[in-house]
Amino acid sequence: MAVRDYLRERFMPHIWCPGCGNGIVMNNLIRAIEELGWNKNDIVMVTGIGCSARISGYLDFHTLHTIHGRALAFATGLKLARPELNVIVPMGDGDATAIGGNHLIHAARRNIDIAAIIMNNQIYGMTGGQYSPLSGYGAKATTAPYGNIDQAFDIVELAKASGATFVARTTTYHVKSMIEIFEKALTHKGFSVVEVLTQCPTYYGRKNKIGDAVDLMNYFKDRTVPIGSKKKEQDPSLIERGVFVDEQKPEYCSEYAKVIERASKG
Amino acid sequence: MVEKNIRFVQGNEACVEGALYAGLNFFAGYPITPSTEIAELLSLRLPQKGGKFIQMEDEIASMCAIVGASLTGLKAMTATSGPGFSLKQEAIGYAVMAEIPCVIVNVQRGGPSTGLPTKVSQGDIMQARWGTHGDHAIVALTASNHQDVFKITVEAFNIAETFRTPVILLFDEVVGHMREKLVIPEPGEIPLVERLRTSVPEGTDYHPYLPREDGRLPMSDFGGVHRYNVTGLMHDMWGFPTDNPKVAYGLMRHLIDKIEGHVQDMTHAKEFFLDDAECIFISYGSAARSALHVVENRRARGERLGLLELQTLWPFPADYVRERCEHAKYIIVVEMNMGQVLQEVRKAVDDPEKVFLANSIDGTFITPTKIRNILRVIQGKGV
Ligand SMILES: Cc1ncc(C[n+]2csc(CCOP(=O)(O)OP(=O)(O)O)c2C)c(N)n1
Ligand code: SF4
After folding, report:
1. Which residues contact B338 (CB under 8 A, 6 or more apart)?
2. Model ipTM?
3. Total domain count for chain A?
4. Please, are residues B271 and B283 in contact by the beta-carbon 8 Å criterion?
5. Is the pTM of this model over 0.95?
6. Cα(B323) to centroid(ligand 2), Å
7. Which 8-state DSSP code applies to residue A201?
8. What is the pLDDT of residues B346-365, one digit of tens each?
9. Looking at the complex, does the CB of residue A111 fall below 8 Å from at least one CB of chain B?
10. CATH number 3.40.50.970 given to B1-266
11. Range of A23's domain?
């Protein structure tokens, strides 16, 4: 199928600013799903609130656009109710790690078969550029006019420690690896977390004087390295990308099926 | 003949039995006194029938999870008490806006805040009405004994499915924990409403948010042949966000009218000695038990007392209350709060001056003695 067969053109134009990274993520997600040959009727996309969360409305799946931070909680109920459905949950960094942080760690801990994609633009885009748990020390934001004093989360470390069984990081600059990583995350049985460094030129780029969308993507190119790269040894501030965790552990819905079996033997 | 369906149970268990009878097959919750038995029992019972139980990380997540489950076609419920009910409010509003059938049980305890966790209260009547933000309509039901808890729980599911709405069951600590007899009806004895599903075939445009002439919205399960968008934003007939004032107006009216326009269909109440009553008690939940006790005693002495026990609190059956209380000299609302239903009764009747309050707010049950004392004052015999 062509990319446009996955889009709800009726609902276009989209709300994203020119140069926003969200479109790149959407495009590559479609390509990954196309590669997998999944039936659209079997795909449910659940999102919260944010610029990134609007992705669900534009895609021709079963789409549930919920409330800020709670997408994974809705998705957990839905997945447990119908485990045969493929559930994808794209989130913003604020959606996923601030208001929704508790749901993220618990979904990971349960290892429920959901693919969480965190579009990390290091800022609250929708509300106009306030700092997020991913902005990092020293960042500028509309609520950090004197520089941010909050330390940032490391989403990869957070997901690993919480029990996610697939954890990866990529960027909007690294399109080819993004598609591969999405394919792996979507087919992984268990909870997968993919962090995508995504540009918000409108707020993050401008506030932090990094520049426009191209400058931000070049920044991702220059500031990230593949896992285990020598460069990282010389410059520890570089950010690693690639697949950090890919392991099999008991998955929640499969375990629940066993509970039903035990209970019905009674 | 020994009836095998007779049980001696807590009110919370009667609620569980009612929910299972109604076809519950998904529960998400977070433990909190005095509702916890509902979660415990369902963790045992649901998997036995292939249903799903999950203990979520908090009450917000529990409320969200039942909405997700309901969208796949399952009958879903959560149960909580005061602090947890507060946490659920945003997601209850989501269920209102997206029109997702589900049932929320609140076994009320003393508040505000952590309050009196193990003591009785009826302090959440207004929170059930207005707890979530924005103009909206809501359905809230209650009951005073276990047979009625069972019945009203089934009715909660029936209303949720008929009108595609969250329904709140406002029980209280006394009803929840008290033990009494429950006769479980035979299958079929109480009619069940199953979800109205769309007959639009695959490949034909399905408008998930275009109401039929009767206001009902046939659903399509997530995972089925119709793919559509569900959102908490103001939306059009496709379920897609819009800020068009006309569409917003139409949706607001639909959401409110589908409930407020069916007050009569949703009104459940019990009448005791109302016909010639000079003094009418209006009460609900466990408080109505004490009120009934006083009424029966006084009747035996020839006093013309009556009781109107409300089971539907929202939408408030104002016309019905006015009608039934028309000839009463005075009305006493018996409840365990500062007069939350009292205000509604005053708004409903012709003469608000004749409406009085007999209440309890200290975590102790409102006993017949307490009601009698207040009655004496009102009748001008005391103080
Ligand atoms: C309960 C609640 N609190 C706050 C908001 C306001 N709000 C909407 S989106 C958002 C943050 C968006 O940031 P992020 O999740 O990082 O997504 P982005 O817009 O950057 O894609 C906030 C605070 C809300 N909608 N709901
Ligand atoms: S504000 Fe930022 S995140 Fe939001 S659409 Fe614009 S560029 Fe994208």
Report:
1. B123, B359, B361
2. 0.98
3. 1
4. no
5. yes
6. 57
7. I
8. 999 999 999 999 999 999 99
9. no
10. yes
11. 18-264
